Amino acid sequence: MFGTKRELMVIALRDTDAVTDELREALATADERDRPGLERAMELVARAAAVPDAEVRGRWALHRITAAGHTGPADSVHAVRALRQAEPGLSLASAVQLSKEAAALRAT
Question: Is the pTM of this model over 0.85?
Answer without folding.
Answer: no
